[in-house]
Design goal:
Chain lengths: ~250, ~425
């Protein structure tokens, strides 16, 4: 079993108006095999948490820690984190013109595993994973995310999740922009990855819809840069009914 | 990519425009008097009367005033590094020319009084005229009418640094289909004139590779005449040499022609790579598309791109677009980028221009690194991807492969 542990994390960014603190003391422990859902209002800092775990240079950790099985994640570069087993499915996947999906997937897989995958197996794995996620095989020859629709980008994030087999996946609103069928297909992909690799999942979402397919063990309410409340799956239903008013009032 | 340095100076003006066909509100920005500023962060100074239509042409070097470096078409070129190409008679031995071609293609060496010399253009600057006057002979490569799958490689090998002149004429016969590669290697100081005569209905891909040794100085005027319904794909690839200045011009001789002008350059420390192109739309219903992409790395790497597109009064139904994109890899480089679009008729299908110069898009880098790819490899992927857009246009697998290797080698130089 592996553990991703976030302790009293404070994160700020540089803006034109000066330094702005966005995360104000986040603590969260995820073990492999567990699914944690994070819900919270727009702008509360969910994506900031996800990007900070992945190591985006825009975010500065001012105090607190992130460790993976005791190893200091904050000391690692972005690529080292990925190779250590962290995966971020981004809210807004980036287009990389001129780099084909095939080339990208193979290059990333080779980097993560430390050796090139056997060509025969790899080609088959990619084909199967694409078919499972109902991604048109023609996408293999397209440039990374270039011109993909919102939903297609999200599927391709999950394709990578399945192929790269991380220990921990952070899914930042992977469900937004997906139609009903795609939501199901993508959720199944996440569940497959979880079963096969006993992956730990941090699922950021605004909707309980996806939680019908991906069952969370824990639900955390994220408000103003902190976790305001934690509970089981029932908390999600309550949030859907009541919204975030009671948290925001406390805050005001 | 992110538009850090100076961002977009103009974007596509396309069909479906508000009042005049082919115009958007941007139309008013497209006059040559309103300079779409260069991309170095400083606005470039424009000489007011710079309409491309008014530029003198002549076969005689005396018809061009001695260069001062302040001329519109020389203002970015360091004349001191021209190796005398603009001053002295060019008496050095011309680089050797070797032609490999599929059956049916004729290769001749002819005197400068041959009728085919001068069939596609008249010199437009002093160096070109100097080369014309100094050349002892011209190599004429002729693709016969209706020939298909023709491949020609012209290898120009420089053998010394004495200023010299070179003349090449390529004739693509009516309705022929051909690929001609002009490959420059070795050390030379040369003023070169290349005439490209694309006869009616022909489709010619012309690739000019500037892979010179690092001391070469090369000024190449490449003038194309495009016949009725003919198609020219011109691809300039520059990465070698100390100073390289390629000036391709495409002129339509009849309606229905198409010109695609692509370019790829990779400038290292101290290198000056300049591309100035001209598309002269004087005939109805012709199309042109220009895309030049460049990467710069190292102290003093300097690239210049100037794209003059002139849509004359009679060129109704023109569809034209030009773009230049530069990727800056290190500090200490300079990329000048000036699109000039002059439009003298409102009756066009479209006309637009774009120019961007920027550093790496950090988001692309982050995305690739977040998938485990180390920074150096991620940077290479991004640069290769950036340049790939042009390489993919070539359509000749061996050549694409070779250029990919060249890009690799250039990138490897960054690491050391
Ligand atoms: N570069 C930036 N400049 C200024 N503010 C920023 C910047 N990046 C993030 N922020 C601010 O940080 C806060 C947290 O943003 P974040 O994207 O983490 O929110 P979120 O919880 O993911 O919201 P959403 O549910 O809308 O995705 C927001 O108020 C946002 O405006
Ligand atoms: Mg977000």
């Amino acid at each position: 079993m592996s553990t991703l542990e976030i302790k009293d994390l404070h994160v700020s960014i540089e803006t034109e108006q000066g330094t702005k603190e966005i995360l104000k003391g986040v603590s969260l422990t995820i073990n492999t095999g567990e699914t944690h859902a994070i819900m919270g209002p727009n702008g509360s800092g969910k994506s900031t948490l996800a990007s900070t775990i992945a190591g985006h240079p825009r975010y500065t950790v001012t105090s607190g820690s992130i460790t993976l099985d005791g190893e200091d994640v904050l000391e690692m570069s972005v690529d080292e984190r990925a190779r250590a087993g962290l995966f971020l499915a981004m809210q807004y996947p980036v287009e990389v013109p001129g780099v084909t999906m095939t080339n990208f997937l193979r290059t990333a897989k080779t980097a993560i595993d430390g050796e090139a995958p056997s060509l025969r197996h790899w080609t088959k794995d990619v084909k199967t994973a694409m078919a499972d996620l109902k991604i048109d095989p023609a996408f293999a020859n397209r440039n990374v995310n270039e011109g993909f629709s919102g939903g297609e980008k999200k599927r391709v994030e999950i394709l990578q999740l399945e192929l790269f087999k991380p220990k921990f996946a952070i899914l930042d609103e992977t469900d937004s922009g997906l139609d009903v069928d795609a939501l199901k297909v993508v959720s199944e992909g996440v569940n497959r990855a979880q079963e096969k690799n006993s992956m730990g999942t941090l699922l950021i979402t605004h909707y309980t819809r996806i939680l019908r397919y991906i069952k969370p063990d824990f639900v955390h309410v994220f408000v103003d840069g902190k976790i305001a409340e934690q509970g089981g799956p029932e908390l999600a239903d309550r949030l859907e009914e009541e919204g975030y008013d009671r948290f925001l009032k406390v805050q005001a | 990519m992110t538009e850090t340095a100076t961002a977009i100076t103009g974007e596509k003006a396309r069909i479906g425009a508000p009042s005049i066909a082919g115009f958007t509100e941007e139309g008013e920005n497209l006059s040559p008097l309103n300079d779409p500023a260069g991309s170095t962060g400083r606005p470039t100074v424009r000489i007011p009367d710079s309409s491309r239509a008014g530029r003198p042409t002549s076969y005689k070097v005396e018809d061009f005033a001695p260069l001062t470096g302040r001329e519109e078409d020389w203002r970015f070129t360091p004349l001191k590094r021209l190796g005398g190409l603009h001053k002295e008679a060019l008496t050095g031995a011309a680089p050797t020319v070797e032609v490999q071609a599929t059956a049916g293609v004729t290769v001749e060496t002819v005197g400068m009084d041959d009728a085919r010399v001068g069939s596609a253009g008249i010199p437009e600057d002093r160096v070109s005229a100097n080369g014309w006057n100094s050349a002892a002979a011209a190599t004429v490569v002729t693709v016969p009418a209706d020939a298909e799958d023709v491949r020609v490689t012209v290898t120009v090998t420089g053998t010394g640094l004495e200023a010299s002149a070179q003349h090449l004429v390529v004739v693509a016969g009516p309705n022929s289909r051909a690929v001609v590669v002009l490959d420059h290697v070795g050390s030379a100081v040369v003023a070169e004139n290349v005439e490209i005569d694309v006869r009616d209905g022909a489709a010619l891909t012309f690739v000019t590779l500037q892979g010179w040794a690092s001391d070469a100085i090369h000024a190449s005027s490449q003038q194309a005449r495009i016949g009725q319904d003919a198609h020219l794909k011109h691809i300039a690839v520059s990465f070698g040499g100390d100073l390289v200045r390629v000036t391709p011009s495409a002129r339509f001789a009849a309606p229905g022609g198409e010109a695609e002008l692509y370019g790829l350059y990779f400038a290292d420390a101290g290198q000056h790579l300049e591309h100035r192109l001209f598309v002269d739309h004087s005939q109805p219903r012709c199309k042109s598309n220009v895309l030049y992409k460049g990467a710069l790395q190292g102290q003093g790497a300097h690239t210049v791109w100037v794209g003059d597109v002139l849509i004359r009064k009679d060129a109704v139904g023109t569809d034209s677009y030009e773009a230049n994109r530069n990727l800056v890899l290190t500090d200490g480089t300079r990329a000048d980028s000036v699109p000039n679009l002059e439009i003298e008729t409102g009756l066009i299908d479209g006309a637009g221009h774009a120019s961007t110069t920027g550093r790496f898009d950090d988001n692309q880098l982050f995305y690739l690194m977040a998938r485990g790819i180390p920074e150096k490899a991620a940077r290479r992927l991004v640069v290769r991807g950036f340049l790939n857009e042009v390489i993919q246009q070539i359509g000749i697998p061996e050549l694409e492969e070779r250029l990919n290797e060249t890009v690799e080698a250039e990138l490897a130089a960054t690491d050391s």
